[in-house]
């Protein structure tokens, strides 16, 4: 892990209520997948190409992955994250503790809205309208959560509700209810995605795809992109590390739409490995929460700055291009 990210993590752990730290840090079950997401990067090595004479791209192929409840990490919550994002795309969680309109108003770059399709499609449509009115540039439909993951740390702490004064603000005043709970539903299907397609012209992404055939189905249903993700090891403790699932999805999609990877990205080198395996960009989840908890907006900015700096350095070392033939197993 990049040492600045490690420092921010340690500071976050020191300042956070241990219950909230465990909510952010924890995974599902025995946390096998949580650990494997990071370990998968250590199993791979890069063979740099030499004498290519390429300049170095200034782009940072990073998105901020959607994570819930930023005001548990810092009083400014999602406003601080949005301000820190700069030109980096912020995928704002439906479970944000600041309403999406305020998140977008605080951001200077693109904001995408992450959506859990609600079984009541009127509620889902109202959320989509909220995101559109706020000025979100895309919808990211999370599809890996037919039911809530069982997080043993939260169960042990009895952590089920936000503290008084905090709420999932996007769920306020929907369909005549003061504050709705976010529902997960195993009845959600591709048909719901098609219905979303009918109610909005926003580009639709799906997040949480691991099986290559689901990626093919997603392309067939007209998605703008696919996020290979196991929800940061928070849903099913039997799945592969995101990085290990990436190549087959990239092959199945065959360049028709961009493929983003999230899970376990902790350094510029990790970004380079994911790109070499065919990702167009990576998403980062927990490092942003650690930066936010440690130092608010400045902490999140530091996370992005250090990843940008490290990624550019690795890219220069690799000859400015990253392709799959450059990835080998570390024996
Ligand atoms: C505390 C926490 C809350 C999360 N909340 C959401 C969410 O509201 N919606 C969603 O689609 N994914 C959510 N995720 C998953 C992230 O979007 C992302 O897939 C994951 O964090 C990436 O792994 P990383 O934390 O190792 O970078 C959450 C993850 C964490 C750690
Ligand atoms: C509100 C929760 C459903 C957010 C989430 O996706 C998570 O904690 O992993």
Structure explained in plain terms:
- The chain starts with a helix and ends with a strand.
- Helix content is 42%, strand content 14%.
- 46% of the residues are buried.
- The chain is globular and about 65 Å long.
- The protein is an alpha/beta fold and 331 residues long.
- The strands form three sheets. The chain has an eight-stranded parallel β-barrel with strand order 2-3-4-5-8-9-10-11, surrounded by eight helices. It has a two-stranded antiparallel ribbon with strand order 1-12.
- α5 (100-106) links the parallel β3 (89-92) and β4 (111-115).
- Flavin mononucleotide (FMN) binds at residues 23-24, 37, 65-68, 93, 95, 114, 142, 207, 229, 231-232, 234, 262-265, 284-286.
- Flavin mononucleotide is lined by residues 23-24, 37, 65-68, 93, 95, 114, 142, 207, 229, 231-232, 234, 262-265, 284-286.
- Pfam families: FMN_dh.
Record keyword descriptors for this entry.
single chain; alpha/beta; TIM Barrel; 8-stranded parallel β-barrel; two-stranded antiparallel sheet; 12 strands; 14% strand; binds flavin mononucleotide; Alpha-hydoxy_acid_DH_FMN; oxidoreductase activity; Alpha-hydroxy acid oxidase; FMN_HAD
